[in-house]
Design a protein that fits this description.
Rossmann fold, 104 residues, alpha+beta
């Protein structure tokens, strides 16, 4: 059962874009932004990150597989993000991305 309408999701997406745009102002070279949502929708997750990276070339996703339990199959952690799905991971839906500001 859904508790949100499409317009609510669009509004959340705009808010998340503003949060990322604001956060980037406070990250020094080599610094990290952890972007996280409690949803499994691409629009708010990987699409949002790809748009941010496309507009902000001084940032990149960096892997964090060393922080993931080896029992979990989360190959995407090598790419800089993970997705948790209720039917696979027995948890709420979740997305986490690790974004680093380049040194140069």
């Amino acid at each position: 059962k859904w508790n949100r309408e499409m317009k609510d999701i669009e509004e959340l997406n705009k808010i998340q874009e503003k949060i990322l745009d604001n956060a980037k102002k406070y990250v020094k070279p080599g610094g990290i932004i952890i972007y996280s949502t409690c949803t499994i929708g691409n629009r708010e997750n990987l699409d949002r990150i790809n748009k941010f990276l496309g507009e902000n070339r001084e940032f990149q996703l960096i892997g964090f597989e060393d922080l993931i339990c080896s029992k979990e199959n989360m190959e995407s952690s090598k790419e800089g993000y993970i997705e948790l799905f209720p039917h696979i991971h027995r948890t709420d839906g979740f997305f986490i991305a690790k974004i680093q500001k380049n040194y140069s």
